[in-house]
Amino acid sequence: MALQARVLYEFTAEAGNNELSVKEGETLTVTNKSIGGGWIEAQNFRGEVGLVPEDYIEFITLQAPAAPPPPPQSVGNVAPQDLSFFDAYAPASTPAQNQVDAGGLSPQPDTPDTPVSTYISSHDEASNGNDPWSTWNSNNNWPSNPEGTQTGKSAADPWNSQMQAHPQAYQGPGAEDDEWDDEWDDTKSNAESEAGEAGAMMRSGAHATSMKISLNKFPGFSKPGPELFLLCKQLVKGKDKIPVYMGEVGPVWLYPESQLDCVVADPKKGSKMYGLKSYIEYQITPNTTNRPVNHRYKHFDWLYERLLDKFGSAIPIPSLPDKQVTGRFEEEFIKMRMERLQGWMIRMCRHPVISCSDVFQLFLTYKDEKDWKMGKRKAEKDETVGVMIFTTIEPEAPDLDLLEVEQKCEQFSRFTKAMDDGVKEILTVGHEHWKRCTGPLPKEYQRIGKAFQNLSSVFTSSGYQGEATLTDALTEAGKTYEEIARMFAEQPKKDLHFLMENNNEYKGLLGCFPDTIGVHKAAIEKVKEGDKLVAASKITSQEKGAMAKRVSTMSYALQAEMNHFHSNRIYDYNRVMQLYLEEQVKFYETIAAKLRQAHSQFTTM
Length: 605
What we know:
Layout: E1 4-7, E2 27-36, E3 39-43, E4 49-53, E5 57-59, E6 99-101, H1 190-204, E7 212-214, H2 227-230, E8 242-247, E9 250-253, E10 262-272, E11 277-286, E12 293-296, H3 297-311, H4 331-349, H5 358-365, H6 369-380, E13 393-395, H7 402-438, H8 440-460, H9 468-490, H10 496-510, H11 513-528, H12 530-535, H13 541-600
Parallel strand pairs: 8-13
Antiparallel strand pairs: 1-2, 1-5, 2-3, 3-4, 6-7, 8-9, 10-11, 11-12
Helix pairs in contact: 5-6, 7-10, 7-11, 7-13, 8-9, 9-13, 10-13, 11-13
């Protein structure tokens, strides 16, 4: 029987790309599943055959229902859900327990139908030439869904205290360039394949059987949580340590002597699959080598996923600009994406931990194909990911009291929530102002200008010889107002655009904090349960003390990250507000000069 697939999201084919337009809910017959590049070949009910993005469909298969789990049993007066994650320290577990999902930070229960919690990625691309912010939805806690993503499902409050999937994980369709070029990579390693497939599941939100790998270090853990770090037996030693120092503002990361920077430029269109599929390649030049390297969007996406896996529990990693299927080769879209990739790279370059990491340095400075492949596979085999990144943190300060740790965590949570609300208000107001400046306001000035010119025509028709000066002046005044109308329509691109881009970046960055802070809140709760866990013989008194010490380490990392965030926030908002107001001053000074010129045309009586 031929393999069938159900369409999850509507897709409109681009002419000349051998693509097939499909509608949500439509059933397709898969004619070639091995096309590659994130595409499959399929036939619709009309007999038309073409390429469809693989993340836009789900294969129709029959699955046996999962057996219900056995009822939990309590231990004394301690609820079973409070102790389940400490089963690793009880007597031996079965091999079936020692499984976690590959390709993500968080282990999942060993059931094929475990749903993946997802968030929609940060912001939409421009939908029209006048207002690139027209897709912002001020009524939502999070930005509007990008093209082709799941809609109509309410997201849980990202600012609550519970652990959640990272809100910035990319959720859009993998339709642009979802495979590495043949000249970049040969046959994928098992680890890479597992990570890629698990990542595709996260992006599409599909319910599918997860790829599994053995995790012998922490058997028995069936869900994510900071206990992996709080009770681990061995910490990282040597050069992999990330120091935290006490500075004037409190705990700070160790900053490099020279600031890393890079330029994203020179986008060029390339093709693969004998010209069937196209992509855009960018040139990235770091200031450390001044030697350019070339990367496609897929490579940026790979870097983002690696950084999210490794640092996401301790450092907020903002999402990339969204993928887009239709119109992705248009000049305006390419320019907008390059600008946003540049902003993303600058933010990564400015972070002292990320900029010095091996995977980021590989992305900027690889020498050749062999160097890239070796570094890529090394990064994908890195075991210090998720909450285990805290094993590398080394604060040069005394341990903090648990109460102080909790107070700091709550303080940061309140601030980031309040700033998130403020940033969204700026984006909403800015969007409305942009629409007014490019729509109603220019039309009003044009009407005024036309009215003055029409009045001048009426006066001219009188035949009176002594009013030429007046009618000429009226005509010039009308033209002045028409010119002011054009200025209003063009001005947002010169000033408001940069203010909106800055706030959009911070909206994406702030969207990461609930999950990062949630890790710390969960760790605090586990330490608070220490006495119960000792009484239940789940942990020893020594392990309880180690947990308190390690949650202090986590707090130093959070404080260092918040101090880095505040430092960048002050710099960024100073810079963008200065630029905005300077351009506004120039704008209104130019208008004033034009009005003075029009005023001088009239005779003083």
